[in-house]
Design brief:
By secondary structure, the chain is an alpha+beta fold. It has 5 helices and 17 strands. It has a 6-stranded mixed beta sheet with strand order 7-17-13-8-10-9.
Length: 317
């Protein structure tokens, strides 16, 4: 007769790693803008406007004295950190070493904050003037209305044309054009009934990751894009879990962004740093800590375009 206590010898088997649950990934905008370090609390950038030549009509006229515009932008870096305590007894019971996975999750959390700071800098008020005390909003001329549609060919064409009208040389590597959209917007483009077969195949390839560009823009897909205010603007507020705020807004009305590389500057220092150590004040349990400080500013309004898109409406033109 089999022993009734055999179940006490059963062993539970655990995987050798911790599986990371689905989450919004950050770091989407890294490498798409001007990136620098920052030493102090804030940093200033001086800018120089255009000067225009005049025709010489008199051989002995006085030397010309033309005027040229000087401007300045300020960027402020915001610190972020995250820490997780790991009980040494839990570590033994789990039979896995979770330290690396814990750090991965912390890095993901900070990368989301880095993207949020980028979005605030791109669409929020730029601090201008001698001391950065003047708030300069993205003008209405740089905002394309949603018109009850998602991202359309017409909107892409309008954005590209607007860059041209603003004198932005898109052949200059510093003016490489990007567009940030949500996964739902890509889905809307696939639902189009009016795009050509070539466009449709290109969008399908974009979704599959085979290409990254369409209509002259390199696409960036992010769930962190803010909701758009009816008639313009964006709600630059995110929850503690990094979800874009929908307060007083239609959650389906999202602010997509077309911009060129030189249009936004992001500063970081320190970049993401991580530490894992034993805390003698916590019974020598392990503690994982990560931190970062970053901020962004729009360098020129003409180089950033907000494209409002009503998600869930198939592309119609």
């Amino acid at each position: 007769m089999a022993s009734t206590s055999i179940t006490t010898a059963f062993v539970k088997q655990y995987g050798s790693t911790l599986d990371l649950l689905a989450q919004t990934m950050g770091g989407k905008f890294t490498g798409t803008c001007l990136e620098e370090s920052i030493e102090g609390e804030e940093k200033y950038y001086d800018q120089l406007g255009s000067v225009f030549a005049s025709e010489v009509t008199d051989r002995y006229a006085d030397s010309p004295e033309n005027d040229i515009t000087h401007a300045r932008r300020r960027v402020v870096a915001t610190p972020y950190d995250v820490g997780l305590m790991l009980d040494k007894f839990d570590k033994v019971q789990m039979l896995v070493n979770p330290e690396s996975e814990y750090v991965q999750q912390q890095v993901h959390a900070l990368n989301r904050k880095k993207d949020i700071e980028f979005l605030k800098g791109a669409l929020g008020d730029a601090q201008t003037g001698k001391t950065g005390g003047t708030a300069t909003a993205l003008p209405a001329t740089q905002i394309i209305a949603h018109n009850s549609t998602s991202l359309t060919i017409a909107k892409l064409s309008e954005a590209r044309g607007l860059f041209g009208e603003n004198g932005i040389d898109l052949d200059d590597p510093l003016n490489k054009a990007y567009i940030a959209v949500t996964p739902k917007v890509i889905q809307d483009m696939l639902g189009s009934t009016k795009t050509t077969s070539v466009d449709f195949n290109t969008i399908k390839a974009l979704v599959k990751g085979e290409i990254t560009s369409f209509y002259g823009f390199e696409f960036i897909v992010s769930n962190l894009l803010p909701t758009a205010v009816s008639g313009g603007g964006a709600t630059l507020d995110w929850s503690a879990s990094d979800v874009p705020s929908t307060a007083s807004q239609n959650a389906n009305n999202r602010a997509c962004i077309a911009y060129v590389k030189s249009g936004i500057r992001q500063v970081t220092n320190p970049s993401i740093q991580t530490e894992i150590s034993k805390r003698d004040d916590k019974r020598f349990n392990y503690y994982a800590y990560s931190c970062m400080r970053t901020g962004a500013v729009r360098m020129e309004e003409k180089k950033v375009i907000q494209i409002n898109c009503n998600e869930g409406v198939a592309l119609t033109g």
